[in-house]
Fold Voltage-gated potassium channel regulatory subunit KCNF1.
Amino acid sequence: IKMAGDSRSPDVDTDGSEKNEETEIVVNVGGVRQVFYGDNLNQYPETRLAELINCLSGGYDSIFSLCDDYDPGKREFYFDRDPDAFKCIIDVYYFGEIHMKKGICPICFKNEMEFWKVDLKFLDDCCKTHLSEKKEELEEIARRVQLILDDLGADASESRWKRCQKYIWKFLEKPESSYPARVIAVLSFLFILISSVVMCVGTIPDLQVVDAEGNRMEHPTLDSIETACIGWFTMEYVLRLISSPNKFHFALSFMNIVDVLAILPFYVSLTLTHLGAKLMELSNVQQAVQALRIMRIARIFKLARHSSGLQTLTYALKRSFKELGLLLMYLAVGIFVFSALGYTMEQSHPETLFKSIPQSFWWAIITMTTVGYGDIYPKTTLGKLNAAISFLCGVIAIALPIHPIINNFVRYYNKQRVLETAAKHELELMELNSAEGKAASSKSELEDLARGGKEGPFYSSRLKVSHSDTFIHLLSEEKHYRTRLQSCK
């Protein structure tokens, strides 16, 4: 086998009588030999295999720019690439499209296609879906790693107020960042539970007190606890708003809107109680206050901020709109059909409870959902038969879309766990690589120092590299970072 430095031309026909269409080349990819003919390869002349046909007349420099090794005796080209991916890629020359085999990493397969200079448009749509999903996963891992690195690092050029903002934001939004942050998260969770319990206990008549006008109101002790909880929620929201890096996005976030709805009724009720009596009748003020106090149930949704399970459930329901729509459509059709049948069949009974079809909707709803309150029920034989068929159809209609919804929940939950583990693994690997790099650098600098090539103070300053700066430096090296991420399977 001739080496790449040899500038002599390989053995080819000097008269040029051999046509490209009749050329036969042998390609060895990872120990797997494949024979190709020019008429197949020239269908896509911009691919690497098609370029191999025309590179023989360009010398060994041209050949070794396309392959890893070449045997002129066998006219065999050697490539140190993935043979399984190559078997899929060559389908483009025979079928005009490419399918990925199961078990091949989509990102690695994309890199193989780029190496063989095959356009991604030949990849079938089903495989492009896997590729886009993998890209999203890697982008999510990179985003999580970058967030962790941003928390670890501190920019010395930033002002003191900016650094304070970042510290408060991390303290309130990221409980895993420190032990005090976890304590604050637990306290916030407890305040949510206490306020919810106080709201429920305050409605017990035995714990209520009667004011001067004879109206029942919550116990003053419960009011004090409620005030303390609202004070905590207000302080927490204001601090998070002040320290937020993007206040517009913060204000429009769903969970932050829930926080406002949990806090606002207290202050509106307080304002109406003290000022509203001068502007309107006392009874109207009390009705408005009572309506606003009902809005306190919104604070229970604040638990989603501290519960990954509730967040996963919300995402699963969001991704299952199609299945939920099918469920509602099935139920709507069944409710209309069985309520109309029930009304028609029950008209012959003198004591019928089905007064109209709209009134029968309620009976159809509680029957198809297998609740069955019993306030409306059929009395004729045909009506009872219709009821039996309706709740059987209701069970089937509810059971059919449930499985995809559960799958969405399990898939997203497992995906979040995998992404979290992958992000931690990336950080560990970067830390290991940075430690190895510093060890090698220290060894070479010690050797130079022993020869007197460097001064002591300058050498010691070179070794003072912060932990966070090392991480950010490694993450900014796109080639190293992408190579690690693209090896994920």
